[in-house]
Amino acid sequence: MHQGQQFERSVFFVSDGTAITAETLGHSLLAQFPNVKFNVRIIPYISSEEAALKVVEEINACYHEEGELPLVFDTLVDANVRDVINTANAVNLDVFEGMISKLEQELKTAPTKLIGQTHAVTNTEHYKARIDAVHFALDNDDGARTRHYDKADIILIGVSRSGKTPTAIYLSLQFGIRVANYPLTEEDLDDNRLPKVLRDHKKKLFGLMIDPDRLVAIRTERKAGSRYASYSQCQMELRAIEGIFISEGIPFLNVTEMSIEEISTRILQITGLNRRVS
Amino acid sequence: MHQGQQFERSVFFVSDGTAITAETLGHSLLAQFPNVKFNVRIIPYISSEEAALKVVEEINACYHEEGELPLVFDTLVDANVRDVINTANAVNLDVFEGMISKLEQELKTAPTKLIGQTHAVTNTEHYKARIDAVHFALDNDDGARTRHYDKADIILIGVSRSGKTPTAIYLSLQFGIRVANYPLTEEDLDDNRLPKVLRDHKKKLFGLMIDPDRLVAIRTERKAGSRYASYSQCQMELRAIEGIFISEGIPFLNVTEMSIEEISTRILQITGLNRRVS
Hints:
Chain A is of the alpha/beta class. The first copy, chain A, has 2 domains: 7-107, 3-Layer(aba) Sandwich (Rossmann fold); 124-271, Rossmann fold (3-Layer(aba) Sandwich). Chain A is built from 11 helices and 8 strands. Chains A and B meet through α1, α4, α5, α6 and α11 of A and α1, α4, α5, α6 and α11 of B. Chains A, B: Its EC number is 2.7.11.33, 2.7.4.28.
């Protein structure tokens, strides 16, 4: 056991499509081994045995150089292409192996074996919903416009740089949800109540909170030494906004330690908001 | 075999984290069975045996109602929680089973068994790169500003509504790449050459092409009956821009049939651009 000590290992993600699935699953598994430094190569669009042979050469060259078997995660639908990849000097982590046949058995229907289906535009309705939602998020970013709030599924509110924009973007791109976001400024906070435009859509509001230390750090990168980035200013704004969230009964989340993905899925869970895509 | 005929099946994605991995892999696999209508329930943040028991009840109720075993994809790190889920009346598609132990054996190191690691902010550098890139994409969307083009990794160009913005957003959010985008307007196209601001950054340019029929459809949704959405206008703009791409030697991609994910991964492949995150 390499206890505690850091070591490296090469990893290949091989796919007949975008490789997003192989990458997502691979990263999930590798995250369980934080003391290993994984050197990742992503190889998408391998759809022929010929292309697979070249990948095998690359994997073998890597093994030859490093003296340790590279890890190979693949999501290849075509068994012939998969068989070629499996000839490499590597630890094969075949994602689809077993699962597809288990599903075939259970569903009593044959898989299409069509490659690149995962991220293909198979459902144009869903696809359009996502694109429309992205444009909606951009058009309604940062309080730029408020006249479309009746069409929003949710309106994120928070102080400047609390994570509203990236969260809005993720929710729209991934789930097709129409998200507006509105920054509560010092003026709004001085009033100690919601601006009218938000009061009219109170049921759609969701608040983002963040710890003052983190907010100071983020704002300092933007405007170092400014009042905007000072601890006292950040703390004041955050106390005021938390007061509004609580007194107005607006659901909110402290996002300090969270990634965009976590914030977004938590928001869905808390609000019960449904995805427009699945 | 249910050949050709459409039938339905319930699916559960269960996770101790965001459920994004379970969902991504599950959708990949289910995409192989397009004649089945899958009714999906996503259940994130199941981190205790108690919470898992409630999920088991929900799965069993579903089985009871439908008379067919639901499919359950799970990415649970804790074996005890997983064991509880596995008691449900369901077809268990345990994503991590086997893979984690295979990795443990090969890496000769124990998994942390910490839950929710996949989409946690484990690498703050990478995380910051993504957030910064999203803000960069928004600030440099649609030719809004051009003075930061020296800091861009890539500048997407194309006619209005050819998919530049969603692609820029995806590349930034997913891969931390700094993407600007610039729409070539009729005036630019009349000149039959690149505007100066783009000529100064020619090596960063990447073109998006789209078929006229598709462009007409997209523009019609926005401004039905307008000259902007007419076939002749779309065709004229596309011919002109393709001419510029070719004469200027700008790499480009026809994105008509592609999803944002496909466009984005193809662009990385064609340009050899490196992700800032992995």
